[in-house]
Every structure is written in structure tokens, then in C-alpha cells.
Fold this protein.
Amino acid sequence: QLIRDELNVKKVTAQPADAESLMVATMKINKKTAASKLGPKLKDAEAELAKRDARELRSGSFELAGVVLDAGDVIIEFTSAKTGYAGTNDNRGREAVVSTVITEELKLEGLARDVIRLVNQARKDSGLQIADTIALYLHSPAELLAKALATQKLNIATETQASEWSDVPLTADAYGTGSKVDGLALRIELRKESLK
């Protein structure tokens, strides 16, 4: 939970050590240690190395071009993540990778987060106190943002202390402002709710 909250991600999964890496490995012969072992087979070993899996070569000994080599005879660097991911690797077999695929659900949640920020700024601009509850009207002519408002209604209401959600514009005494979320028009109207 702490990692998810700190990184603002939906899910954290610990992969087993033998799982396929999501990082792209580049491998090359460490000529300082392996050239003398390989001798004239150096070019053959380089060609064979290009076809091997980096996980096989991280520890222990292995064979390239018919010559037994040690893990230190190959330099393995993880320079980038596979398509759809971003990440890093400590070159000791540990990696941290994040999916960069934005699903519709994530997009709607992100838009809602921006709406929450804008509504809370409108609360502040209108002179409301932190503890004040509000009646809230939100409208966007943009289909995507309207969908975010509808699907994230409860979250938006909770995070902005909206005790009333209006489907029609509020009365003239409401504070109103126009804004944009990800380039999409948004109308915000809010009014302090009286204590009952």
C-alpha cells in the first residue's frame, strides 16, 4: 500500500526472480577478461552472445563459441524498458518497471484528479474554509470529460466536500468559473451549504 500511494500507481506486483525481464538488455564481451580466453573465437562468441538471454549469463559460468566463460566475462546493461513500459535495473537482477499504457479507466481517473484540484482552487478563490461543505455543479461539453465527471462523481464529491451534487446550474448566488482540463472546457459552480 505504501509503495502504491508513494508512486501514485494502481497496483504493485513483485515478480519471481526467474520471470521474464521487462527491460531491454544489451550485452557485450568484456574484452579485458574474455579476449585471452576466446582468442580467435572472439567474433564467433560476439555473434552467439547476441542470440542469448541475459538472465542465463548473470551468474555462474556458461559457454560461448565452445569456450567456458564466467559472468564477469560479459557486460550486461539494461538501457531501456520494453515497449509499453518505463523502468530501471540495478544490473544485479533487480528492476523496477512501470506500465506506461493509459487505459480509459486511468484516463478518467486522471481527469477527475485535475477536476478535484480545480474545484478545490475554486473553493479557495471563493473564500470558503477547509471544513465548509458545498453544493457543486460541474459541466463539460466534451464527451470524455463528461464521462469522467459521471464515473468519478463520488470521488470528486468526497475530495471536494460536496454534500450536494447538482445536475443543473446553481442559483445566482453561487461562485462560478470556467476552466480547462487537459484542453477540455469545464464549468464549475459551487455554493457553501448551510449547516442543517
In short: The first strand starts at residue 23 and ends at 29.
